[in-house]
Specification:
- The protein contains 20 helices and 2 strands.
- With about 475 residues, the protein is mostly helical.
- The chain folds into 2 domains: about 375 residues, Up-down Bundle (Growth Hormone, Chain: A), CATH 1.20.1250.20; about 60 residues, no CATH class.
- The longest helix is centred in the middle third of the chain and has 32 residues.
- It is globular and about 55 Å long.
- The N and C termini lie far apart (about 50 Å).
Length: about 475
């Protein structure tokens, strides 16, 4: 009988080892629900900034105003994303999420209706900034949930797969978003592309926050200091460097704490300690994420190379409008996202050896070459689409690698904030890219503005090399 049980367990383990890592992820209870709802809620990231450009250019026929308002929105998003992330880490997704989501949807609707009624430009700018100030990163929330549900699997490679898959989902969103935004703006109404992402955010976000079984717990580091007469010294419960323990470990430590309390109460009043004293003497505030070594260089890299994406989007929009094929804009932009989605699937199914920083340098160099080819082929839309697919293979691996670097540096209790800082850096970069591209378009034309993507990505390569050098030096 024992041999039969051992054989069965061996067969199950063998099947688990040979199963697709993506199939293994979705066998985790609750994973499909929060993954799909989080993907729907992320639709605004691919539609709102482009939707603002399309709507404002149609209403006022000015690329600079359209690009500047889109940049103001993105900068507002970047400014508040870490704040929301810290709130989620400190108070929990189930408490902060519903309130933040309600405010977000209301303000998004206000901006969409204001654009529909053609309110004055200063009022629209104010509403765009207010709308950006209500946005938070669903991608960071989903990735934090993956880190939580995978904590007890003992398979670190699954988190790599999960982050790569989330990068692929981002790209699917970026495939559908531009197509949908361009179709709605040109075929339905110039402002209709602002209402669809609002609805998606409201529905997807409501479902996401209703899923309680996969919500990470809010655990803060607490030290227990025993009385002076005790021979055992201090008991460290979830010390500052341990991050979030798994459920079994937390139960074990809680039981040990209760036992210690009961023993102390039996020995006399000198050995008692209260829950109030427990938190007062041992609670340690989490460090600011930006103080962890390596985070700031990573954020600088993300700011610089993310300028390339919106610079390409705006330049491509102007190019296709000048050619009279603006209705195909969404399809053209989607080719880049298709390549990125394929790159995410490939990256997530393989284990690359070596430093994550080294991978980032390689991907940035390859993306730079791809952007150079964009400039060369920009007048042939079919050839440009093929180049977009090839260059896009590097995009999702870049974002997944950045998230993995953060996961290696930041403790689990601050992971949402750490991942949100990456999103913030990307948002800052994209806002700079749209502003710069809009100004260059008005001053010169799309052929010059298409030089921006490869230039800024090339500048990010030495910055990534510097981050890699710092990482090697720390080791």
């Amino acid at each position: 009988m024992s041999d039969a049980i051992d054989s069965t367990e061996h067969d199950l383990c063998s099947r688990e080892r040979h199963a697709s890592p993506y199939a293994t992820l979705f066998r985790i209870p609750g994973a499909k629900s929060f993954c799909v709802s989080g993907a729907v809620a992320r639709l605004p990231i691919s539609m709102m900034a482009l939707g603002i450009v399309l709507a404002l250019n149609h209403l006022y026929d000015n690329w600079t105003i359209a690009g500047s308002m889109s940049a103001a929105y993105i900068l507002a998003v970047a400014a508040v994303t870490p704040f929301y992330a810290r709130m989620f880490d400190r108070f929990g997704q189930h408490r902060v999420g519903p309130v933040a989501l309600t405010v977000q949807v209301v303000v998004m609707l206000a901006f969409a209706f204001a654009a529909l009624m053609r309110v004055p430009i200063p009022a629209l700018f104010a509403l765009a900034i207010a709308m950006g100030a209500t946005q938070f990163s669903f991608g960071a929330l989903v990735r934090t949930r993956w880190a939580y549900v995978l904590r007890g699997t003992g398979n670190g490679a699954l988190l790599n797969t999960a982050y790569a898959m989330e990068a692929a989902i981002d790209e699917v969103v970026f495939i559908l978003g531009p197509i949908l935004a361009a179709f709605l703006a040109t075929s339905v109404h110039p402002v209709s592309q602002l209402f669809v992402p609002t609805a998606a955010c409201g529905v997807g976000g409501a479902v996401f926050f209703s899923l309680r079984s996969t919500v990470p717990p809010v655990l803060e580091p607490v030290q227990v200091e025993a009385s002076a007469s005790s021979k055992t010294g201090g008991a460290d419960i979830g010390g500052a460097g341990t991050g979030i323990p798994d459920a079994a470990e937390a139960d074990r430590r809680a039981a040990a704490q209760r036992s210690c309390t009961q023993q102390a109460s039996g020995r006399g009043t000198s050995q008692r300690f209260s829950l109030r004293r427990l938190h007062r003497t041992g609670a340690a505030k989490p460090k600011n994420v930006l103080t962890y070594p390596g985070i700031v260089p990573l954020l600088v890299v993300f700011i610089v190379f993310n300028m390339s994406f919106t610079a390409f989007d705006v330049s491509m929009t102007a190019t296709m409008k000048a050619a009279g094929v603006e209705h195909l804009l969404g399809l053209q932009l989607a080719m880049f996202a298709v390549g990125s989605c394929c790159g995410a699937v490939i990256f997530g199914s393989r284990q690359l050896k070596g430093s994550h920083w080294r991978h980032m340098v390689v991907f940035l160099a390859l993306l730079t070459v791809g952007y150079v080819l964009f400039r060369v082929t920009m007048d042939n839309f079919l050839l440009l689409g093929a180049m977009e697919v090839l260059a896009g293979l590097c995009v999702s691996p870049l974002f997944a690698t950045g998230n993995l670097i953060v996961k290696d540096i930041v403790p689990a209790r601050s992971l949402t904030e750490g991942l949100s800082w990456v999103t913030t850096a990307g948002s800052v970069g994209t806002s700079f890219g749209s502003t710069l591209a809009g100004a260059v378009l008005d001053a010169s034309g799309p052929h010059l503005s298409m030089m921006i993507p490869w230039t800024v990505t090339l500048c990010a390569v030495p910055l990534a090399l510097f981050g890699w050098w710092l990482a090697r030096r720390r080791r």
